[in-house]
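Teaching assistant here, posting this on the class forum so everyone can see the example we discussed in section. The complex has two components, and the goal was to see what a joint structure prediction looks like when all of them are supplied at once.
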Amino acid sequence: MTVRVQSEAFDPGAELSGFAQGRSDVGAVVSFTGVVRDDSGTLDRMEIEHYPGMTEKAIAAIVEEARVRWSLADCLVIHRHGPLRPGAQIMMVATAAAHRVAAFEAAEFLMDYLKSRAPFWKREVKRDGSTDWVDAKVDDEDALKRWSR
Amino acid sequence: MVEVMYFAWVRERIGEPREKIETSAATVAELVEELRAREPRYAAAFADLSALRVALDQELADFDAPLNGVREVAFFPPMTGG
């Protein structure tokens, strides 16, 4: 299980090629990469603030829950902070499990929880200099409910 | 004495990322009341608690949670990771 919180860019391909290598119990690897989107063409950058210390702990707890629940063989979470240009990678998750359903579900679970339970805050800085904190979406909170049991 | 931290727009409204606060508040809600009474910038930041989240020693908590033995209190808006 690997968790990295960093300002530096990362290479999703390189991360994935080294992930869960050499394990004979892995039949499925799923990965997701989140990218800075600029729908309106007015975004200069996305700035991501976080809570050092709590961020790592919160992600580790989410990863541990996923590992146990889906019997993951391995799991990778990378999340960046600081200023990010449109097109830049924000984060990635990868899951490795014996079977496809577990790997997909665990990746979705991780994404849903990282969105609403890891202490990151996104602020958009537009090209005209105006700024906007990104509001949490009701849908994102609702997405957590499907995992409760 | 507790270390109180603010993130995102809460930090912007209050104007600093952290401060040490001498308090006898028994719960988070009581601490919020003390802060609100300090200055308008605190009243503005804590105007709507439904728009805020709190963490005690880096674990998410409720506003009625006790502050017994807590060293670090953080206030912030709902998280937007991922």
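For the discussion questions: Chain A has a mean pLDDT of 96. The radius of gyration of chain A is 16 Å. Think about how each of these relates to the inputs above.
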